[in-house]
Amino acid sequence: MIRAYKFLMRPTVGQAQALSEMLRDHCSLYNGALQERRDAYRHVSKTGITYGMQSAQLKEIRAFDPERQGRWSFSSQQATLRRLDKAFAGFFRRVKSGETPGYPRFRGVNWFDTVDFPKDGDGCRWDSTPHDRVTRVRFQGVGHVKVNRHRPVAGRVKTVSVKREGRKWFVVLTAEQGEPQPLPATGSVVGIDMGIANFLADSGGGFVPNPRHGRKAAAKLEAAQRTLSRFPRCKAKDRTANHRRAVEKVSGLHGKVRRQRLDHAHKTALDLVRRHDFIAHEDLRIRSMVKAPAPKPDPGRPGVFLPNGAAAKAGLNKSINDAGWGVFLTILTGKAESAGREVIAVDPRNTSRTCPECGHVAAQNRPNQETFHCVGCGHTAHADTVGATNVLRAGLVRRNLRQG
């Protein structure tokens, strides 16, 4: 089993400058490799250039530019080239499947925030000796950097990554561990229904309120973006001090909302995993749910469009993204695997329209957002609780079919 750890680094001024230079030079390598692939495809041949061909040129590149490329780890530069190769593999996969291709783009210095080291000990070294809280990690060309290790690292460290978030630096480790120790069985099963009014409802009648972190920060974020909009668009090196502070303000607010969503998702998922042996949830297609509605041309008036509910759908999409369902379900699945719990996704169709008492399915069973009233048998309950109950039943059926 592979588990990731993320720790805050506390570099000195000189080390922070060296880390920034490392990101800059890896960004230059990435963009140069991308340009070579574009030129080869356009002017040389349609077969293009592979990762192996570009990796074989690294020795010559490092010898030609020892100040900017030769000072960094060879394996980390190979990882950057693999990153580009992965981007092209995704591009060709989307082309074949008929999706929006999304050709790999050049990265600006401020948009290239991660450098990977594929193996601990090759260009980097994690200090695995026990310490109270502060340990060190060594990077080639940077030196030994202090790390705030807020929890112990279990297992053997396999990969190390450097990540920049605003003005903060983080080290991300992946460690190989044995089979996780399962939590004691509770004998409890639950189904959950994701929502907007409530973050989730469970089949036992419980609710988790929706914190709406994005909505709470909207006023501050709007003011910060309004301030940023007063500055003309320019390159990072040409920004004034006030411009840089405005950029950092917007970035900091977005980062705070993201951390709040992650914190809420982790705590909610951990509570579910500790209390239940089996968890069923809806198999949501979130990317399709937040798509903008298609325009409706007016057949009688060329160039004129009919109302399509785009404004209302935009508000719903914003609320769905603010809730962070996808992040929560990913975290829930990972925590359940570590704890020896079982998580099953079920088809969400008609889960909130089906009566749990008589099985009658009708859109009229849900007259409004909160109320469920079966027109067949008269059963009344909270609509989200009914949805969670039906999700649990469908999940148990799937589990029995899988086991049988």
Structural class: alpha+beta
Low-confidence stretches: none
Separation, N- and C-terminal Cα atoms = 27 Å
Number of strands: 16
Estimate the mean pLDDT confidence.
91
The string of secondary-structure elements, in order, is EHHHHEEEEEEEEEHHHEHEEHHEEEH
List the helices and strands and how they pair.
Elements: E1 2-10, H1 13-44, H2 51-55, H3 58-64, H4 74-97, E2 114-117, E3 124-126, E4 134-139, E5 143-148, E6 156-165, E7 168-176, E8 189-194, E9 198-202, E10 207-209, H5 213-216, H6 218-229, H7 241-275, E11 278-282, H8 286-289, E12 296-297, E13 305-306, H9 310-323, H10 325-339, E14 342-346, E15 371-373, E16 380-382, H11 383-403
Parallel strand pairs: 8-11, 11-14
Antiparallel strand pairs: 1-5, 1-7, 2-6, 3-4, 4-5, 6-7, 8-9, 9-10, 12-13, 15-16
Helix pairs in contact: 1-4, 6-7, 7-10
Structure characterization notes:
With 404 residues, this protein is α+β, with helices and mostly antiparallel strands. The chain has helices at residues 13-44, 51-55, 58-64, 74-97, 213-216, 218-229, 241-275, 286-289, 310-323, 325-339, 383-403; strands at residues 2-10, 114-117, 124-126, 134-139, 143-148, 156-165, 168-176, 189-194, 198-202, 207-209, 278-282, 296-297, 305-306, 342-346, 371-373, 380-382. The protein folds into two domains: 2-176, no CATH class; 189-213 and 255-403, no CATH class. Helix 1 packs across helix 4 (74-97), helix 6 packs antiparallel against helix 7 and helix 7 (241-275) packs across helix 10. The chain is globular, with a radius of gyration of 26 Å.
